[in-house]
Write a structure and sequence with these properties.
Length: 427
């Protein structure tokens, strides 16, 4: 029994000491630039260590092993000929293991350098993410790299909200709505505004972003930068994106409730106002939609889109022709090139002419005087419609609805050559 125990202890001792030459050889090979050889030795050490129970591992050797493994794999990752994405993961984990191991022992020898390396690793994850996203079109790989950078910076005490926002956008792009919702909620809770400070670097005359106002102020005070600029907050954007997620996932109750929250937080945001308007229209809550538009027009009375939509609701949904015409006209005056408003004004005259035609059809055969009077009224309405349709044609000569309306009016007014021309344009 004693012999067996002694033999077992001897095996453990041999394996423990076998680690050291491999770790040292890896360091020597790395220092002379032979990364392939360095990888071979550090992987040999890993093979031995991974077979050992944790409690039997060499306490003095382990932090050195983790530190050198991190360095070897980081250099491999940075080498253009040898690089592989997984090498950065290995380096990151090894540096983290080195820091954690020395924290548990209370002795800090190798972890200081490991801590200094982690910000560079995080920056490389960002570069990797951008390459995957913009150059390779691999959004899933980009998300993975951004997630690694975000988590790594968290361990360094940095809350990288900008990177988190990219994770949200890309998760939404790949339809991972669960993660996107989680990210947007976090950013909203953090009140992330993504305000950037930029300045002209006097050294080369180019504008650059600065990490914060304090840094930019220092550069300006030391006459190294000029023309500071502060970007606008984009906090509202995360509310909008979360609403899109709720819409895509058909979470109607959450959408309606959060839309109210978003409108209260950003009452003057046009996109949120339009989303609320669309919500009213989808529910056929036309009174709510009109109240929404009237609110918007208080601060932006010449907004052709709002004026047109108010006109459309009054005209088509509320059957208030006077109000409808009033708002369509206001929309056209606000933007003479607003095709829809111009077309609808023409259509209102077509509708009016059709009402006259119905009256004509109800007349007895011997009511010629009344018939002629109504026929003249009909032609006046058609002529008025033609003014708007020709104006619409001038705005967009390819609009199918406008071409069809022009053909009909030209024909009814006896302008057959014009009707034929429009038919030829329609093909």
């Amino acid at each position: 029994m004693k012999t067996t125990a002694f033999f077992g202890a001897l095996v453990l001792s041999i394996s423990m000491f076998a680690q050291a030459p491999s770790v040292s050889s890896a360091k020597i090979a790395m220092d002379r630039g032979d990364l392939t050889e360095a990888k071979k030795y550090i992987d040999e050490a890993a093979g031995i260590i991974n077979e050992q129970p944790v409690e039997t591992r060499n306490v003095k050797l382990m932090p050195k092993y983790y530190a050198y493994r991190g360095q070897v794999y980081y250099k491999l990752f940075k080498d253009e000929a040898l690089t592989a994405p997984e090498y950065l993961d290995e380096a990151s984990q090894s540096f983290a293991d080195c820091i954690a191991f020395e924290a548990s022992t209370g002795k800090k020898r190798y972890s200081k350098e490991a801590e200094e390396m982690l910000p560079y690793v995080a920056a490389d994850y960002i570069t990797m993410a951008e390459d995957n996203n913009f150059n390779k079109g691999n959004k899933e790989a980009a998300i993975k790299a951004y997630e690694s950078a975000y988590k790594l910076r968290q361990t360094l005490g940095t809350l990288d909200t900008l990177t988190l926002s990219y994770i949200g956008y890309l998760s939404q792009d790949v339809k991972d709505f669960t993660r996107a919702e989680e990210v947007y909620k976090s950013l909203i809770d953090m009140n992330f505004k993504n305000i950037l400070w930029t300045g002209i670097l006097l050294e080369d005359g180019q504008r650059y972003p600065f990490p914060d106002k304090k840094t930019l102020d220092f550069y300006i005070q030391t006459e190294r930068a000029a023309e500071p600029q502060r970007s606008e907050s984009i906090a509202h954007e995360f509310y909008i994106q979360l609403l899109w997620v709720y819409n895509e996932t058909k979470q109607t109750e959450q959408y309606d409730a959060f839309l109210k929250t978003a409108r209260a937080a950003f009452p003057n945001n046009d996109n949120l106002l339009k989303m609320e308007l669309q919500s009213f229209l989808d529910k056929e809550d036309f009174d709510g939609a009109l109240a929404n538009l009237e609110e918007a027009l208080v601060s932006d009375p010449k907004n052709a889109l709002y004026l047109y939509n108010a006109g459309f609701i009054y005209h088509q949904k509320k059957k208030d022709l006077v109000k409808g015409r009033e708002y369509y006209t206001a929309a056209m005056e606000a933007d003479p090139g607003y095709l829809d408003a111009v077309y609808m004004l023409g259509l209102m005259h077509i509708d009016a002419s059709n009402v006259v035609v119905e009256k004509m059809n109800d007349l007895p055969r011997n009511a010629k005087k009344e018939y002629d009077k109504l026929n003249a009224e009909k032609d006046v309405e058609l002529a008025n419609a033609l003014v708007y349709f020709e104006k619409a044609y001038g705005i967009n000569a390819k609009d199918e609805a406008t071409l069809q309306a022009l053909r009909e009016v030209y024909y009814k007014l006896g302008k057959y050559d014009d009707a034929k021309r429009i038919m030829e344009e329609m093909g």
